[in-house]
Amino acid sequence: MAYNVAGLTDYTIENQELLTMKSLFDGRTARLIQAEGNVMTGVKSSEKINILDTDATFQTGGTCGFLSSGATTFTQRTVTVGKIKVNEALCPKALEAKYTQKALQIGSKYEGIPFEQQYTHQKAGAIAQQLENAFWQGDTSVVNANLNKFDGLIKLLDAAGTMAQGNPTGITTGTGITTTNVKAIVAGMWLAMPASIQGKDDIRIFCGWDVFNKFISAYTDVNLFHFAPAGTEVSAANGEVIVPGTNYKLTAVHGLDGTNRLFTMRMSNVYLGTDLENEEERWEIFFAKEADEIRFIAEFKDGINVAFPDEVVGFKLV
Question: How far is Cα 285 from Cα 93, in angstroms, rounded to an integer?
């Protein structure tokens, strides 16, 4: 009896869910937000971060009666997602004249691609890297196609206009960020925190790897190697250290590389929006008969915002 495979697609990658998760949540920023549980799913265009705030007004006790005071306030901030897709056509026949021919299947009809595992791993990593940059530098008004799908934290926080400023006196665009002044800059980032969030255990000071490396160099230059022990989860090698004398983490993210920007915030204050639950989130590699080529398709939505911009400290060279 012959095989009947009419109900099967010619070729499709099987680990679709794994690859989708890797691409969307493999960058450090997205991974930290996901760990906090602040991922809003099912977002098609935009969704509100619903905020409840209440105060407590003390009154003189020892007497009967009731006098209402204080207020409970509901406010909202919006996470707007960008709609993103990645399409690529791959023609295995283009590999026949090169050393890559050794990886091709026998015969002249190719319904799969060589180096499949390496390809999908690299593709997922590339998407994650671009999203990491967009979470910080995204700006819908720029030309760069990898940054103009949604607004990132830099634009959103600058536009809010309520960030505390952590700029130490005398550090400007003329001085730049150097190994001489980087300790003062980082110190300014936690000294300027609003009193209401000081001492919280989920506070991170975010910077680019370029600034992070200068910070490490500034301490190692004075032989203070012990402040950032190697071989631990929180270590210089992993792009994260405890700022000496505090319980706050200095965290390097590639999304801030080259920006000369730093931000201090609670991770519980940051929200990521994505669709993810729906069929539009697809990652496929399949053989397109009509074109005699292998096609890669990924499509997803992503966006980011903070609930309380006034609880964020920012640094910018001026």
Answer: 17
Every domain of the chain and the residues it spans: 16-51+74-316
Q: Which pair of structure tokens corresponds to residue 97?
A: 């004249």
Whether pTM > 0.85 for this model: the answer is no
Query: Letter for the amino acid at 91?
Result: C
Nearest to 28 by CA among 249, 218, 178, 287: 249
SS3 state of residue 17: helix
Q: Phi and psi dihedrals of 295, rounded to 5?
A: -120, 140
- Residue bearing tokens 């809003």: 40
User: Class for domain 16-51+74-316, per CATH?
Assistant: alpha beta
Q: CA quadruple 250, 252, 257, 258: dihedral positive or negative?
A: positive
State both tokens at 38: 């602040």
| Cβ contact 249:240 at 8 Å | yes
Phi, psi (degrees; rounded to nearest 5) at 269? -95, -10
> Following CA atoms 317, 204, 228, 244 in sequence, which dihedral angle do they give, to the nearest 10 degrees?
80
Burial class (CB in 10 A: 0-12, 13-18, 19+), 277: exposed
User: Nearest Cα to 237, choosing from 225, 222, 255?
Assistant: 225
pLDDT-derived band at 77, boundaries 50, 70, 90: confident
Burial class for 110, CB neighbours closer than 10 Å (0-12, 13-18, 19+) = buried
- What burial class does residue 249 get, using C-beta atoms within 10 Å of its C-beta: 0-12 exposed, 13-18 middle, 19+ buried? middle
pLDDT (tens digit, 9 = 90+) per residue, 267-294?
999 999 888 765 556 678 777 777 777 7
Question: Given a cut of 50, is residue 1 above it in pLDDT?
Answer: no
